[in-house]
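Example record

One chain of 581 residues, shown exactly as stored in the release files.
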Amino acid sequence: MRHLQAAGQEAGKKTASGQRLKASVATRSLLLLILLTTIILLCMEVVSLYNMNVYRRQTLKNYERSIQDYCDFWDARLSAVNSSIVNLMNADNGGDLSYWTLCNRRSGLGFETSKVMVRDRMTEIAKESGENIMLFTCVPSGGLYVKSMNHLVGPGARAELDRALRSYVEQLTSSNSVKWAYFQHNGISYFINTFALYGGYVGALVPCEDILAGLLEEKEVICETSFLSDDGKVFCALYEDESDQREKVYSFSIPMEHVSCQIRVAMLENRLLAGQGVAAALLVGTVVIGLALMVWNIRFQISQVLGPLNQLKRAMEEFSRGRLETRLDEKKHTGEEMKILFRTFNNMAEQITDLKIAVYEGRLEQERISANYMRVQIQPHFYTNILNLIYGLAQCRDYRAIQKLSMTTGAYFRYLMGEKGTFVRLGEELACVENYIEIQRLRYEGCFAFFLEAEEGLERELVLPMVLQTFVGNCIKHNISLVPLLSVSVRIWREAGELYLRIADNGTGFEEEILGKIEREEDLGAPGEHIGIRNVRERIRMFYGGKGSVTIESGKAGSVVTVRLPEVLTEEEQDEYHIGG
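Predicted structure tokens for this chain:
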């Protein structure tokens, strides 16, 4: 009795030791998971801070680049105005003597006409420049002053601005520079530039604030824009709002090529990088919650999913090695999904032997049809004829025809030899037919006529590759030398949810024996003879079943082939097939 008690106590100690061992492993695993989670969180925080810093620098650089592009835009506009003024003044450029007339005459019909022409031309230049640039012409010796019809100030201030401009021109000591000067009147800052010729001046005026106003479209970021002179003084500025003194401001200056100044832009960094802090907090919170859920989910998945899936994996590996007797016990698991998987595997194992034979035979049949399809595509005699045709055109030095034939043949071969799926768009098949016809027109010039009529909107319908080109090619191949003028017509339409392709010709038609063999799908005897027609019919039967058909009507007056295809695949069905093109 004591021995039994001692054995029981020893067994109890071993069980408790095993439980402590298991608890120790679970505790260590949990601690390891916590440690790894903490490391991951710290790494993510470091990466997040680094990304925020990179994002800040990149954002500031992008804004600076956009301001540079804006300055380049205005430099280009000012340069264009300079060029337009020079063209206006140059009497030898285009034969316009209007400006020369204003400078050398004082009255007369030609003088008045020239005033109107110069004003209209300046108005046109101002309009092309965005209408915020005003142009004027001044001839001090003749007391002449003409300006464009757009205005930069209100009616009450225009006369005063005109007097100021005339006074400015009269006091000029130098001109004809691509650099625009600074001009101020009634507290408004302008950029001005003038060119002198024949004793007269043509100038342009643009408000500084109009240039700065374009930068303030980013109202949420940019708080101030201004112009700085070469000595660093601000002579024109625009403020979006009065920012808080505690907000950090980032500013930079960009020089302009056609103005002796710099554009200074001030941005509020907290607005520029708005939302980054919230996004980082949400990221950390999401990661923490996700990791916690992951720990719980891992424990559940190991017991309910991963374990059974490992059993299924091992069984499938055994089955793939040839052990067809491998089966799974579906009664060991309480989960309905695992039972269904195990039951499905067992049913699959029961049927796999018979299915292997059926799949193998089906694959052989499909490979045979694909091989026939490729043989139809590869026609060495057709390639040889094209090369001979190019050689003949080269002897005639008809290089334009050679170029056209080369481009058309390249497109035709690209379609024939390119990788195509089960279906292609009807528009692609029609393009192939058009290229084939163009090649044959060059070979048999004036020997046949081709007509194509297709309902609108059918170009995106799905058809089997070469389903139309095969019959068009047969019409020309077997009839071109047998009738004085071969006529081939193609008509495509949709009726009752089906697509119809009708190919007709005025050739000699099929021989009754050949037509009967085609209908009975018998061997025609001659290698490659009408193999394209048989191939199309086999592919239609394979991919459409009894829903598609090819009907051939033949007589002494010609042949008519009608191809009937079932309703176009829906968007959901299209996803199940690879569509070529």
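Notes: Residues 169 and 201 are 7 Å apart (CA to CA).
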